[in-house]
Write a structure and sequence with these properties.
2 copies of one chain form a homodimer. The first copy, chain A, is mainly alpha-helical and 203 residues long. In chain A, helix 4 runs parallel beside helix 7, helix 6 packs across helix 8 and helix 7 packs across helix 8. The structure holds a DNA duplex (18 and 18 nucleotides).
Chain lengths: 203, 203
DNA sequence: GTCTATAGCTTGATAGAC
DNA sequence: GTCTATCAAGCTATAGAC
């Protein structure tokens, strides 16, 4: 495994647990088993390393989302549309290894802070978001387009928190619900969100 | 204004913008216009200051939420229940001053990270969450209780991201939607979420 | 590409005078 | 309750040898 990948993997885990400022380059290179100076040599400043961590999986995720979105019938159903957007993330989180779990926790923090909205959310995720909105306009042609943007926003909020698996719901439900049972949650999330979109389309 | 309050206000704004580790005690006391040593004198270690910042408004918020929840008819409607939970936050964010906007950005980060789940979410917000779930069981008695926990989870994800006002939706919608127009968004969020809950109850 | 060594700064916390 | 001064540790970034 290359030095670059070792650094990216270590940075991903640590950034996911403690955030950008909660982790030092020393912790990252130490966890990766490489020298401190190599982080700067391969990635430049710390902020560029952070962006590289996020970009690596965003590219793969977006490619799959775009493929699924393009394969939908026209007009698509809302359920199909939401599934095309959410399924790649769910599958990778369940079966892609620990790196994807870290990435999910990282994205939840990024999506909920102003700090990385421009550099990460707009740069890396807006093209897919626009493809989703375009599909939603076909699925619900009678809807006010603004309501579809808001629906998308509510969906992203519910999804990022779900994939982050903070464990809060496990304690709150006294073990009846499990954050880690993503496939079970997924079966509930899709209809929940689709019903919300449909209700907004009627308004 | 007391030294303690000056420190709390400055810390709130800075923590909301950059997170716990992104802000130093020097930045906080400097913004508050007091000496560095006073942060430790009044609040103890940095982590205790952070918890004090969150607790201050959580107490006020929870009191109002509990009052509204207790005033609902039995059985309540899902719309009424969600409104009782969300309205105090929305009103304060719209009319409570800049401190409540900072607090909303802070809560969005906390709710989406594992790091503060125990010390903040469970400690400060679980009692109200349980009151909400109890009401949801009355509103939708035919629902599997687990689905109500998941609905609550999706609701919190959508709500925290909405109140955080990251501005992403403004750019994505090319100005058609505005993060800051919380009252308009609120009218869409309540039916979106209520329809989601109802759909889960049918499953 | 990798390593050692270090410059230049910032950090949280506190001791001790007032 | 407030202030000055400081400690010990940590930080990012980089220069220079190999």
């Amino acid at each position: 495994m290359s030095t670059k990948d070792r650094i990216l993997d270590a940075a991903e885990t640590l950034f996911a647990d403690a955030g950008y400022d909660g982790v030092s380059l020393r912790q990252i290179t130490s966890a990766a088993g490489v020298e401190l100076a190599l982080a700067n040599y391969h990635f430049g400043p710390k902020s560029d390393l952070f962006l590289a961590v996020v970009q690596r999986r965003a590219d793969e995720l977006n490619r799959e989302r775009m493929t699924l979105l393009a394969a939908l019938p026209d007009p698509p159903t809302m359920e199909g549309l939401i599934d095309a957007f959410a399924r790649p993330f769910m599958e990778k989180s369940l079966r892609g290894g620990a790196g994807w779990k870290s990435y999910a926790r990282l994205i939840a923090q990024i999506a909920n802070s102003q700090r990385w909205t421009q550099a990460v959310m707009h740069t890396q995720f807006d093209p897919v978001a626009e493809a989703f909105i375009k599909g939603a306009k076909r699925a619900l042609p009678e809807a006010d387009p603004r309501n579809l943007y808001w629906g998308f926003h509510f969906m992203v909020g519910a999804m990022t928190m779900t994939f982050a698996e903070t464990g809060r719901i496990d304690v709150l439900s006294r073990g009846k619900c499990k954050s880690g049972a993503l496939d079970k949650i997924y079966q509930r999330m899709i209809p929940f969100l689709a019903a919300g979109f449909r209700r907004l389309a009627e308004a």
